[in-house]
């Protein structure tokens, strides 16, 4: 069957429009506290950092997104709590901060104890992996606003101020170490769902690459939490860190104006091959939407690359260049 080439924008999420909205919103953030608690960097990195004496406190907020709709379809909610924590913790790690505490926000159309228990199961699993406490949260019943549920949260971390990693030390010639993802993670699911709607498959069908699992189960694989990155930071010089989420490899622009020449990428997972085929999605759109098998990036001096890759079970995928983002011959823009 010939299908139209599906794109993230046509499915309902236009990254450029989203960036314009963010710019309009943050342009109004003109007030800055002074002294203890003052902001240490502008809005736009992975986490916000504030002065707390010897340390900086790092803060993030994020949610699971439309992945929750697949959880509802599968009636399996015990993994999305891991996603919620992972999306926040991985952003903290991208500044070199260690996570210490988390609060969640659960908005509901209606209540179910079984559902709530499964949400809690995932949250506590994510907290255990991240070695942090869940210290509170909020549950809101919003039947006139919410259809189903929405799960989000905020994470607090800390890092000594002299150990903050922003990407400012990245230079051409540095090595790029990629760490594999566990799957689609928690981004691009609006496009994922459009692909599934256009395909001949349902979420309950066996996954063609592994028939012991359903497609829904593969898509609900929780986001990997990259705590091992802290070990690398403690043992060697690290110039930059990036969490690959929505907008795919375009996220690399958050940490440097230099370019990324990824000439030996991590092979994309089977789920991406499936989605690309079923949605007739071109390579560029895939790399601008999904992590494509690489969920986190560490930039280190060339001489430290192999050691860093071994520590995180990753691989050296390329090097920093003067400008642009390339995967082999594909230019991401």
From TrEMBL:
<dbReference type="InterPro" id="IPR004733">
    <property type="entry name" value="PurM_cligase"/>
</dbReference>
<dbReference type="InterPro" id="IPR036921">
    <property type="entry name" value="PurM-like_N_sf"/>
</dbReference>
<feature type="domain" description="PurM-like C-terminal">
    <location>
        <begin position="171"/>
        <end position="323"/>
    </location>
</feature>
<comment type="similarity">
    <text>Belongs to the AIR synthase family.</text>
</comment>
<keyword id="KW-0436">Ligase</keyword>
<dbReference type="Pfam" id="PF00586">
    <property type="entry name" value="AIRS"/>
</dbReference>
<dbReference type="GO" id="GO:0004641">
    <property type="term" value="F:phosphoribosylformylglycinamidine cyclo-ligase activity"/>
</dbReference>
<keyword id="KW-0547">Nucleotide-binding</keyword>
<keyword id="KW-0963">Cytoplasm</keyword>
<dbReference type="GO" id="GO:0004637">
    <property type="term" value="F:phosphoribosylamine-glycine ligase activity"/>
</dbReference>
<dbReference type="InterPro" id="IPR036676">
    <property type="entry name" value="PurM-like_C_sf"/>
</dbReference>
<dbReference type="Pfam" id="PF02769">
    <property type="entry name" value="AIRS_C"/>
</dbReference>
<dbReference type="InterPro" id="IPR010918">
    <property type="entry name" value="PurM-like_C_dom"/>
</dbReference>
<keyword id="KW-0658">Purine biosynthesis</keyword>
<dbReference type="InterPro" id="IPR016188">
    <property type="entry name" value="PurM-like_N"/>
</dbReference>
<dbReference type="GO" id="GO:0046084">
    <property type="term" value="P:adenine biosynthetic process"/>
</dbReference>
<dbReference type="GO" id="GO:0005829">
    <property type="term" value="C:cytosol"/>
</dbReference>
<comment type="pathway">
    <text>Purine metabolism; IMP biosynthesis via de novo pathway; 5-amino-1-(5-phospho-D-ribosyl)imidazole from N(2)-formyl-N(1)-(5-phospho-D-ribosyl)glycinamide: step 2/2.</text>
</comment>
<keyword id="KW-0067">ATP-binding</keyword>
<dbReference type="GO" id="GO:0006189">
    <property type="term" value="P:'de novo' IMP biosynthetic process"/>
</dbReference>
<protein>
    <recommendedName>
        <fullName>Phosphoribosylformylglycinamidine cyclo-ligase</fullName>
        <ecNumber>6.3.3.1</ecNumber>
    </recommendedName>
</protein>
<feature type="domain" description="PurM-like N-terminal">
    <location>
        <begin position="45"/>
        <end position="159"/>
    </location>
</feature>
<dbReference type="GO" id="GO:0005524">
    <property type="term" value="F:ATP binding"/>
</dbReference>
């Amino acid at each position: 069957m010939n299908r139209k080439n599906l794109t993230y924008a046509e499915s309902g999420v236009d990254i450029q429009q989203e960036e314009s909205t963010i710019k309009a919103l943050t342009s109004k953030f003109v007030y800055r506290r002074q002294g203890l608690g003052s902001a240490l960097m502008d809005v736009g990195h992975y986490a916000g950092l504030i002065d707390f004496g010897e340390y900086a406190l790092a803060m993030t907020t994020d949610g699971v997104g439309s992945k929750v709709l697949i959880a509802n379809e599968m009636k399996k909610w015990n993994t999305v709590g891991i996603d919620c924590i992972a999306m926040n913790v991985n952003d903290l790690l991208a500044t070199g901060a260690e996570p210490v505490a988390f609060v969640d926000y659960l908005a509901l159309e209606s209540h179910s104890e079984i559902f709530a228990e499964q949400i809690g199961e995932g949250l506590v699993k994510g907290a255990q992996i991240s070695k942090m406490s869940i210290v509170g949260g909020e549950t809101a019943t919003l039947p006139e606003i919410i259809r189903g549920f929405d799960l989000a949260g905020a994470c607090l971390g800390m890092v000594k101020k002299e150990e903050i990693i922003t990407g400012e030390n990245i230079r051409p010639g540095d090595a790029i170490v990629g760490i594999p993802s566990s799957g689609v993670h928690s981004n691009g699911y609006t496009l994922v769902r459009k692909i599934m709607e256009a395909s001949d498959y349902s979420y309950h069908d066996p996954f063609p690459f592994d028939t012991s699992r359903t497609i829904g189960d593969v898509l609900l694989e929780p986001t990997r939490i990259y705590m091992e990155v802290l070990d690398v930071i403690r043992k060697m010089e690290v110039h930059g860190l990036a969490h690959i989420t929505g907008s795919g490899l375009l996220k690399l622009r958050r940490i440097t104006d230099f370019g990324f020449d990824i000439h030996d990428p991590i092979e994309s997972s089977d789920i991406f091959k499936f989605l690309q085929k079923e949605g007739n999605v071109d390579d560029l759109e895939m790399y601008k939407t999904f992590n494509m098998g690489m969920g986190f990036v560490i930039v280190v001096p060339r001489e430290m690359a192999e050691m860093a890759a071994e520590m995180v079970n990753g691989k050296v995928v390329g090097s920093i260049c003067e400008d642009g983002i390339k995967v082999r011959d594909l230019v991401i823009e």
